[in-house]
Amino acid sequence: MADLICEFHAAVKTGPVFVCTSCDQLMYKHSVQKASIVRSLALSVTQSVLLYTVSSDGVEYVCNTCSKYSRRNQIPPCAIANNLQFSAVPSHLPTLTVAEWRLLSPRLAYTNCGRVAFTFT
Q1: Cβ neighbours of residue 63 under 8 Å, at least 6 residues apart?
Q2: Per residue in 62-72, pLDDT tens?
Q3: Cβ contacts of residue 111 below 8 Å, gap of 6+?
Q4: Are 22 and 84 in contact (CB under 8 A)?
Q5: Which tens digits make up the pLDDT trace of 36-48?
Q6: SS3 33
Q7: Within 13 Å of residue 115, how many CA atoms lie on the same side as its CB?
């Protein structure tokens, strides 16, 4: 059991700081792969799905879910290409990091036809 706990701590040590270039979600290192691997397949969907967003380490990553759909030449369900981007941070809120902003959000807010829809429960 101690070995499993050590493996878990090693896997989450750096935190969710790797940005998926397709869905813009923050992921752990074990949940992403380099986007260059998916780009090398030269599928038609990669042009509209992979948006050249680089993480803090200067590398472009794609999450495993978006990679799975892209390899099938399909647009991933949570891709920004489906207009599912995070809304802009309102100016009246204090300055937060991207991770803090996403952690404090009660729900993901998506832009719909130019309007921002927030859902609070």
Answers
A1: 20, 22, 23, 25, 27, 31, 32
A2: 999 999 999 99
A3: 83, 85, 87, 117
A4: no
A5: 888 888 788 888 8
A6: strand
A7: 4
Predicted TM-score (pTM) of the model is 0.65
Query: How far lies 15's CA from each of 52, 68, 91, in Å?
Result: 21, 23, 27
94 is written with which tokens?
């204090």
How many CB atoms neighbour CB 66 within 10 A?
Answer: 28
Backbone φ, ψ for residue 10 (5° rounding): -65, -35
3-state secondary structure 101-121: HHHHCCCCCEEECCEEECCCC
Supply 98's token pair.
């991207």
* Cβ neighbour number for residue 43 with a 10 Å cutoff: 15
Query: Which amino acid would we find at residue 14?
Result: T
